[in-house]
């Protein structure tokens, strides 16, 4: 197997997604072609309603395309799988379980066939430690902040050791300071775990700060990929130093130009 072949983690070929609606078929996406390589951080950005979540759901295997194909690690994506963990904006934790139990549930599902309880517990502890949540392990979601809940969601996803981490606006509901802190933590975690990440965002700065590649989508209906911007900023990235740098500003401007000049449609974007 050649190196370039084996490092393609996600391949999307000619994908179209049409929904059945009361008013007839609605084509949300058309002709989507994209490759995400191992260890790459990809941001999906575009105006509200263009189809970012639809595309992420297809990669997650929560839906199937009406045309085209999606592969993960050279295998057709035919449904959800532990190699593709999803973190949603609303953290979707089970409120009656502690943070530890929420993560343990996922660990158990993926590893219980081959590992004993002590090993599963160690994995859970390690995932919570990775997001700095060991002290809150025995608390329930109702007893912790929104940012902490989101960290539990990320810990739960990471605990499954997924090949790909799929993030659907994971920080969208958080205040600016918490959001910045979690972005920095995510950068650190991704550097440590070498994870492959696809993240939906509305935030231009978030996309430039985190990504290796920004996939800019045209407006729907029948949205497609308008442009892919490669972000060649060195890592580790420091938000304060970067904000002043000329290359950062150029990447930022390229995304803003695409969104506001070429796909003008003002809604919900943070620039
Ligand atoms: N199950 C569905 N049935 C019918 N239409 C749908 C369905 N899911 C999504 N759509 C439509 O497909 C389009 C894309 O939706 P999607 O949620 O993927 O956009 P988005 O870019 O993620 O939006 P936002 O940024 O606001 O979250 C929208 O017009 C939406 O109304």
Q: Explain this structure to me?
A:
With 271 residues, the protein is α/β, with parallel strands linked by helices. The protein is built from 9 helices and 10 strands. It has helices at residues 3-6, 52-60, 99-111, 117-130, 146-159, 176-193, 204-210, 239-244, 246-262, and strands at 8-21, 24-37, 41-45, 67-72, 75-76, 84-87, 164-168, 196-201, 213-217, 225-230. It has a 6-stranded mixed beta sheet, with helices on both faces. The chain has a 4-stranded antiparallel beta sheet with strand order 2-1-4-5. A hairpin with a 7-residue loop joins strand 9 and strand 10 (225-230). Helix 7 packs across helix 9. The protein is globular and about 55 Å long. The relative contact order is 0.17.
Keywords:
271 residues; alpha/beta; 6-stranded mixed β-sheet; 4-stranded antiparallel β-sheet; 9 helices; 38% helix; globular; binds adenosine-5'-triphosphate; ABC_transporter-like_ATP-bd
Secondary-structure map:
Layout: H1 3-6, E1 8-21, E2 24-37, E3 41-45, H2 52-60, E4 67-72, E5 75-76, E6 84-87, H3 99-111, H4 117-130, H5 146-159, E7 164-168, H6 176-193, E8 196-201, H7 204-210, E9 213-217, E10 225-230, H8 239-244, H9 246-262
Parallel strand pairs: 3-8, 3-9, 6-7, 7-8
Antiparallel strand pairs: 1-2, 1-4, 4-5, 9-10
Bound molecules: adenosine-5'-triphosphate.
Short description:
The protein is built from 9 helices and 10 strands.
Classify the beta-strand content into a percent band: 15-25%
Helix content: 25-40%
Bound molecules: adenosine-5'-triphosphate
How many helices? 9
Largest sheet: 6 strands, mixed
Order of helices and strands: HEEEHEEEHHHEHEHEEHH
Tell me, briefly, the overall form. Answer: globular
Q: What strand line-up does the widest sheet have?
A: 6-7-8-3-9-10
Membrane topology: Peripheral membrane protein
Pfam families: ABC_tran
GO molecular function, one term: ATP binding
Keywords: ATP-binding, Cell membrane, Membrane, Nucleotide-binding, Transport
